[in-house]
Amino acid sequence: MIDISDIAPHNNTVHKSIAAACVPPSACIPLSAANGDACSCVSPLVSVGERVSEGQQIASAGSAAVPVFSSIPGVVRDIRPALAPDGVFRLSAVIELSGAFSYLGKKKSPVDWRRLSQEQLCASLEKHGAVNTFDHAELLASQIKQLPPGSVHILCVRLFDRDPSVALDAFLSQTCAAHVLEGAAVIAAAAGITRILFVFASEKQRSAMQASIAEQCAGMDTYSLSAPKHRYPQGGRQEIQRLVKKQNAVSFCSELSAADLFIDSFTAYAAYTAVVSDMPCIDSIVHVSGDAVRSSGVFRVKTGTPIYNLIEECGGFSKNPAQIVVNGRILGTAVSDLSVPVTNTVKSIQCVSKKERPMHIQECIRCGSCRRACPQSLAPDVLYEHAYRAAPCDSVYLKTVVLCTSCMLCNASCPVRLPLYQAICCLKEQVHEK
Ligand code: SF4
Ligand code: SF4
To answer: Is the Cβ–Cβ distance between 234 and 225 less than 8 Å?
Structure first.
């Protein structure tokens, strides 16, 4: 572990509420989620010229895929490949706003989910497309169904952001604590789990939320831990398991394994929206920040809204951005086009100037930062040179690729921004193919 503050400055701006972003006149909605097929296996359920309602399902791509809904009422004007926030061209529906909203501005009483059976809760999560963003975006209901039967599981809830340059999960845990905790209780009930482990960013956060946990998770066995401050990587499955061991937690959580269910605050909030508010996932909560925008803010955004609309909401650019980064400077992706839409797995958009993100050069300068940063003691520079430049590489180095935990710290620490982690992924695939 290293102190991350040089690589990804902590975002210290405090926001107290979620602002509703303007409804876009036209939404471009990718028909497959980040983990789904880009184009081939997606089946649009609507055609060009067809009228759609807000919340209507517009695509399906198999049983484990995330259902996609129209975030606005209107008419489908086009179905074409368009750049998505993960940098992939995905088949997308362009919907022009018209007609009445089914959800926006309508008050509904909350669903009394405690009266629902485990199957009904799981069906509600599935029907509304609640996604687990703990690591890679996956349909929550599918993960619940895949839990090994017959074992007593633990639900592990991370209440802070894995990428320390992002502040959205921490914001939700603080500002919407009741909804996040109730959402976690919903997920536990849907999975038939009665033991919940909460992992906090700090002791301060932990003591502030203890009373709410007791209230929202009454009847469940709960335990909480605090992670060390300003350290990275932390918050991943392995790091949480290590934390449990290190803190000698004498409770059920000593049994925590990678096969248990891990979620973050964003996922718990999505589960609350899906089951308690009985709403499909047609909005995302997005934190817009960075030194190249005039102001920052947290917005409730209709999926399909172009990123430039949100930058306008923040008063536009204050200086030329060197990079627009989606979902964090360590774990996220840079987007080159401001018309890229927000999807329900976009948590943060950071507009950073040249000062914060110097221009790249393309050669390794042998500084050794990646080796010092790697928590697994790999040599990312050697592996990169071998994967992308065919440099000879000792088999001792090659065998280490399986130890990579995908923390992307090597990428973040490299002063010339070489795609080290991506190179290691290529080598990992080759190892698995053999
Ligand atoms: S992504 Fe892999 S190689 Fe890079 S720092 Fe993390 S563990 Fe090391
Ligand atoms: S951090 Fe980047 S420049 Fe430095 S040794 Fe590693 S790959 Fe080379």
So the answer is: no
Collect all residues with Cβ–Cβ distance below 8 Å to 119 and sequence separation of at least 6: none
Q: Which domains does the chain have, with CATH numbers?
A: 6-103+280-353 (no CATH), 113-276 (3.40.50), 369-433 (no CATH)
- Residue pair 160/201 in contact (Cβ under 8 Å)? The answer is yes
pLDDT at 6 > cutoff 50 = yes
**392 CA to middle of ligand 2, Å?**
17
pLDDT above 80: residue 361: no
Query: What percentage of the chain carries pLDDT values higher than 90?
Result: 57
Residue 94 neighbours by CB under 8 Å, 6+ apart: 26, 27, 28, 76, 77, 78, 79, 80, 82
| Rounded average pLDDT over 341-350 | 94
Measured from the Cα of 409, ligand 1's closest atom is: 5
Residues 372, 203: Cα–Cα separation, whole Å = 28
191 touches 271 (CB < 8 A): no
pTM of the shown model: 0.82
Is the distance from CB of 67 to CB of 59 less than 8 angstroms?
yes
CA of 190 to the centre of ligand 1 (A): 34
The residue whose C-alpha atom lies closest to atom 4 belonging to ligand 1 is 410
